[in-house]
Structures are given as structure tokens and as C-alpha cells.
Amino acid sequence: MVVKNICCLGAGYVGGPTCSVIASKCPEIKVTVVDKSVTRIAQWNSEKLPIYEPGLDEIVKARRGKNLFFSNNIEKAILEADLIFISVNTPTKTFGNGKGRAADLKYVEGAARMIADIAKSNKIVVEKSTVPVRAAESIMNILKANNEPGVSYQILSNPEFLAEGTAIQDLMHPDRVLIGGEETPEGQLAIEELCSIYEHWIPRKSILTTNTWSSELSKLAANAMLAQRISSINSLSAVCEATGADVSEVAVAIGLDSRIGPKFLQASIGFGGSCFQKDILNLVYICESLSLPEVAAYWQQVIDMNEYQKTRFTAKVVQSLFNTVSGKNITLLGFAFKKNTGDTRESPAIHVAKTLLDEGASLNIYDPKVEESQILYDLTHPSICESPEEVKKLVKIYPDAYSATNGAHAVVICTEWDEFVTLDYREIYRSMMKPAYIFDGRKILDHEELINIGFHVQTIGKRLPR
Ligand code: NAD
């Protein structure tokens, strides 16, 4: 079989960009991205796409209506497809009075059931969603149970390693593509089919093939190792603040060791995003189920350190402001979990904002890409105040950094947007209450210059004179 028709279940941060790149690199293949959400599909078919990613608009607009389609007609897309990506969300579920947390596979299961109910011809089903090890086995059980006579399936694991904010760049030039499949002749044939799609633009040597379980585990392992690096440098940032060492200098010094390397050694208020915490929780749960409690505890510590870093930073804000923020006006610059995305899932800014609101502060918030409705949603779910109306009284969203900082007691940098580096901090200082404070949670500003202007400055991993 040569793949001529691809369907992707899930038009989110992964399904949308991934399929747009496939459509642009494989003009002979029809690619249909489907979703249950009518709003999301309408946005993909509109001028304003549902997600912001540098370079995405151009690709979608070039291919949409030619060989790239966004649709709610899931049945038609499944019937027509030779290959189906499952790219649905895999959120975290809690159980045991909130003590246990693990991946909730209800959407993956729902997607598998849809395929089983609808398909009338052979399909290659590809796990694009991040799933626990051996999820392919459960998917196959569902597919087999509702099988049409004569219809056969091959399941592949093809985890996505893109990072939000650089998704298009990562998809165009990935470090590697990973494809896992069964070690049977049919499994190997299916792997070759998927390889031949990626080979349109990715050299064969960058496409790694493994057995299904190695591929599934590699995705969890990659995110766990990346998050572990952040928690490691963040743990050292606390030691720096206590001793007078500077975490940036330490990061350079250790990063020059070629065994360690310089990437992902930026101390900050902590990692966010929909994946790191979720995938580690998933790994922890798997380890517990496999009776490996010491391994589970080891990875749990990466999450605990991240929580500690967010709490430590926010406590520093409160302590510096004479131990009370009640009735004070604090500006958060940035709300997305990192720059170049409008995604706020697990953003450290949510923790900072909720804690400050809880302590009685009023907040001014500006983010270049996050919509007001999203910020208000994040601050009211789960609710810390009586109602969204109450939050609205305490939180004001501004269209730019200057209006957001006007009259504020303190500014907290929560996201490392480039535009925050080049703001006119003299003008900002003039318009703020005095003494004026800046808490640089992303270590992007020139602290010496800010101190010269008159600010009191605090950052991560370095003691500053004022
Ligand atoms: P998302 O929430 O942005 O999108 C998932 C979409 O799937 C939603 O729009 C939802 O409506 C849709 N959906 C759910 N069930 C469906 C069904 N049965 N049929 C059709 N549509 C359905 O999620 P995302 O960020 O794109 O993540 C998807 C998966 O990829 C997750 O497992 C995630 O862990 C993984 N992943 C995410 C990233 C990232 O940076 N966001 C990176 C790598 C991997």
C-alpha cells in the first residue's frame, strides 16, 4: 500500500502543525485533520488559527483547500484514510482522593473506538499522542473487538518531539523521527509506509525505528530527562541565592563540559506546558504499577522540585514587598508558559497569579499572545474566589506592557517574551509606585541597568545588591 490519504484525529497543538507540515511536504497526499470541536475546526478554517506558532499561518494558508483539510466529518475522513494519526489530548486524571495521578486515556480510547466502529478497509493507526508504555496493546484490543470482517490494522508508535513556540522549525528539521512497530513482516511494512512519508523531507538516517514499547517509553523518557535538567539547575539556583554564587555562571561552567552540554540549563520560575508534568506523572504511575517504588520516587522529585521553585519565587515576591501584597497592584508581564506560544497550560504564571490573588493583591496582566478570556478562565478554574466576576474585579488585562505597569507597585516577569527585554524601563519606572520592584523570573533583563534606574530587583539564582 502506498499512503495517499491521511486522517488525523485531533486538531490541537500537535495534530494541526504536524499535518500542515506533512501536507506541505507531500502535495500528492490528501491530509484531513478532524476534531470533535466545531469551534476549533472553524478556527482552523478561518483567518485566525486557533494556535499561534511562528511560520504556521503561511503553511496552512498555502495548503488549505488543496491537499490540507480541516473538518468535523470524522466518519468520512476515517473511511477514506489509509493511515490515521491519533493526536488527541491525554490529560492527567486524579484518583484515590486526589493523591494518585496518571494519564487519562479516555480520549485515546474514544478515538480507537471511533476507528473500530467506522473503518471498512485496512488502516495503519499511528499513536501520535503521548501514551503510557503498552498503550498500543489496548488500542489493538479495541480495534480487534469491533473488527469488520476482512479489515486488518497495524499500530505504530510515532511520538511527537516538537516543542511549542518552535513547532514548525522542529517539524521541518527534527533531531530524529521515532517510529516503533511490531517485529512482524506486516509491522515492518507499516513502518516502511510511515518512513516513506517522512522521507519526503527528512534524511533516512534521522528516522529511527524500534519496537513499539521502546518508542512509547522513549517519549516519556525524553520529557522526563528534559524536565529533570530544569529541576536540577533550579535546585542549584536556590543554593546560589543562599551562597552568593551566580547560577548563570555555574550553568556556563558546567555546560562547557561536553558530557553535560549547554542546552536547557536556564534557571527560571519553573517549567510549565501541557507535557512535562503530565508525562512524568505518567512515568511515576507506570513505575508504581510495576512495583518499582524507588524509581517512581526518583522521578516524582523532578515535579516536587518544580513546585518548590514556583512557591519559592512567589514567596520571595511577597517577602520583598514588606511581607504583604494586600491592596497592592502587581503587574505580571507574560502569562504563556513560554515565549512564542499562546498556550497557558501548566504555566508558572498561573501559580504566581493565584498565590498573589490569594494574598490580597490586585493584578495587571499583559501577554502578547494570550487572550483575556483564557487568562480569566485559568484564574477561575478551579476557582479561588467566589466567582469569575470576583476575579474580574481583581484582575485587569492590558493590551501592552506600558499601560499594564502604570501605577503598579511591582512587576513580575513570568514569560521570556523578547519584547520585554527591549522595553523602556526608565519610562516604566517613572509611571510606577515607589519604591518600584522588578522580579525577573526568567532572567532576561539587564539587572545592573534596572538598579541604576532606581528599581529594586530580584531574580533567580543570584543575589543582587538592591
Ligand atoms: P490538544 O488538547 O491541543 O488537542 C487535542 C484535540 O483532540 C482537541 O482539540 C480535542 O477536541 C480533540 N479530540 C479529542 N478526542 C477526539 C476524538 N475522538 N476525535 C477527534 N478529535 C478529538 O492536545 P495537543 O497539545 O495537541 O496534544 C495531543 C497529544 O500530543 C497529547 O498526548 C500530548 O501529550 C502530545 N504532545 C503534545 C505536545 C505539545 O507541545 N502540545 C508535544 C508533543 C506531544
Summarize the structure.
With 466 residues, this protein is an alpha/beta fold.
Helix content: 40-55%
CATH architecture of the largest domain: 3-Layer(aba) Sandwich
Specify the CATH class of the largest domain: Alpha Beta
Q: How many E strands?
A: 16
In the sheet with the most strands, the strands line up as 3-2-1-4-7-8
Rg from alpha-carbon coordinates? 24 Å
CATH topology grouping of the largest domain: Rossmann fold
Number of helices: 18
How many distinct domains?
A: 2
Which oligomeric form is depicted?
A: single chain
Look at the helices and sheets and give the structural class: alpha/beta
Low-confidence stretches: none
Ligand identities: nicotinamide-adenine-dinucleotide
Strand percentage lies at: 15-25%
CATH superfamily of the largest domain: NAD(P)-binding Rossmann-like Domain
- Average pLDDT over all residues: 96
Largest sheet: 6 strands, parallel
Span between N and C termini? 68 Å
Shape: globular
Binding site for NAD(+): 10-15, 35, 40, 88-92, 129-130, 164, 275-278, 345
Keywords: NAD, Oxidoreductase
Function: Involved in the biosynthesis of glycosaminoglycans; hyaluronan, chondroitin sulfate, and heparan sulfate.
Protein name: UDP-glucose 6-dehydrogenase
What's the topology here?
Elements: E1 5-9, H1 15-25, E2 30-34, H2 38-44, H3 56-63, E3 68-71, H4 74-80, E4 83-86, E5 92-95, E6 100-103, H5 106-118, E7 123-127, H6 135-145, E8 153-157, H7 167-172, E9 177-181, H8 185-198, E10 207-211, H9 212-243, H10 247-255, H11 276-289, H12 293-320, E11 329-333, H13 348-358, E12 362-366, H14 372-380, H15 388-394, E13 395-397, H16 401-405, E14 410-413, H17 425-431, E15 437-440, H18 447-453, E16 456-459
Parallel strand pairs: 1-2, 1-4, 2-3, 4-7, 7-8, 9-10, 11-12, 11-14, 12-13, 14-15, 15-16
Antiparallel strand pairs: 5-6
Helix pairs in contact: 1-3, 5-6, 9-11, 9-12, 11-12, 12-13
